Amino acid sequence: MAAGRFITFEGGEGSGKSTQARRLAERLREVGIDVLLTREPGGSPFAEQIRGLLLGGTLAPHPPIAEALLFFAARADHLETTIRPALAAGRWVICDRFADSTRAYQGAAGGVPAQSLDMLEQLVIGTSGPDATFILDIDARTGLARATRRREAIEGTEIDPFESRALAFHERLRQGYLAIAAAEPRRCVLVDASSGVEPIAKGIWQTVSQRFAGDIR
Ligand code: T5A
User: Fold this and answer.
1) Is the entire prediction scored with pTM above 0.70?
2) Per-residue confidence band for 103, with pLDDT thresholds at 50, 70 and 90
3) What number does CATH give the domain 6-211?
4) Best mutation site among 53, 120, 134, 162 for ligand 1, i.e. most ligand atoms within 8 A of its Cβ?
């Protein structure tokens, strides 16, 4: 059986990547592909526990490297128990955030050196990296405004500790993502996320159906 494909969605707060990850999963299912839609941090019972710790807003002050290690601990379990078995069974895996989030948040914006993240990626991910990554690019102010509107619309949703950081952090984050897209043009597709949900979904589907033409009938 052919292994499945692994596609990740990345971007800053309110970039719309969760919306687009869901849309792509639905579109692939329409053409008969078995899709697992998952997310980081999380995607397995242990990784979801770490998610609760990281996003719960109760962590004592800690250095960005400690945070990066927690994201990688969650990722190791997510890969081992969810992603690799699904790919081996021929399923496609769509993941809302993956290792580029650590590069952008803890690396470019948080100051963890790229060499340290390279080592962690080699240790935890090895050859199991994504076949394609969509990086949704949006100006930091617009993205934060979208995230705030959504939170206000859902009663009881608290601001998460990453979203509440200063605008300068979110601007560094955006530059970090742009640098990843420039460094890995074969894997990464930079998407202008400032337009509407429909045109963005259409562009992403066009890319996927061209890039994986042999797998989609
Ligand atoms: N993190 C994560 C790290 O620091 N390091 C890591 O290694 C990893 C893996 C996760 C947090 O953890 C950090 C990053 C994050 O801060 P989360 O709760 O999972 O937190 O939240 P996010 O990943 O940020 O994702 P969200 O789902 O909250 O936001 P999205 O995916 O950017 O946006 P989405 O699709 O939910 O849309 C947000 C709002 O905008 C609207 C939607 O309807 C929604 O209301 N929208 C649009 N509006 C106008 N035009 C469009 N094109 C739109 N698309 C969506």
Assistant:
1) yes
2) very high
3) 3.40.50.300
4) 162
